[in-house]
Design goal:
Rossmann fold; 7 strands; 6 helices; seven-stranded mixed beta sheet; globular; alpha/beta; about 30% helix
């Protein structure tokens, strides 16, 4: 992720950096650290999460049927805890925007007009779909979409593959490791 953040900066790709599903904040802290290291003050890092764990699966959303992420207490990291993590590394400032709530409620009106890096880490189909539907149109050409669990969770991959197919997206998907993948928007 760091290399993609640096790549978009070097290439002058416009937009903010954003993650949907931040857990403890590690990825968005890395985004903020890159901006700080390069002395960039005109871009923001947007951290979207419920800060209360994952929601139960919605009725009628087949790929999420039976998912039990909402029962995993470890996924529930409060906004205060995430802010404390940022503060611990002197990364908590006005360039970091926290968007608290369920993605279906917050992402349609997210305070962002242009993105250079978008990291989707909602784990579930509905969360991933809400992220890509509402935010991919705001990703700049040359910007990077990172799918954190593309090779781990079928539901996450299904939401991404369906969106790509519906919108004729053929940019190559590049494997990061055993779990994640990314592509650069053409």
């Amino acid at each position: 992720m760091r290399s993609e953040c640096e790549r978009v900066l070097r290439a002058g790709i416009p937009g903010d950096f954003m993650e949907t599903g931040v857990w403890r904040g590690g990825a968005v802290m890395m985004m903020r650290a890159v901006l700080k290291a390069y002395g960039i003050t005109y871009r923001r890092v947007i951290a979207a999460d419920s800060f209360a764990g994952l929601p139960p699966p919605s009725e009628g959303v087949a790929p999420d049927a039976g998912a039990e992420f909402h029962t995993w207490a470890d996924f529930a990291v409060s906004l205060a805890d995430v802010k404390a993590n940022f503060a611990r590394y002197d990364l908590l400032d006005e360039q970091v925007v926290f968007l608290e709530g369920l993605f279906k409620d917050t992402l349609p009106t997210a305070p962002v007009s242009e993105l250079a890096v978008l990291r989707l880490d909602g784990d579930m189909y509905e969360s991933t779909r809400d992220g890509i539907v509402n935010l991919y149109p705001k990703l700049s050409r040359g910007g990077t979409l990172i799918a954190d669990d593309y090779h781990l969770f079928e539901a996450h991959r299904a939401a991404i593959d369906e969106y790509r197919a519906a919108h004729g997206i053929t940019d190559p998907i590049i494997r990061i490791d055993e779990f994640g993948a990314y592509w650069v928007k053409s």
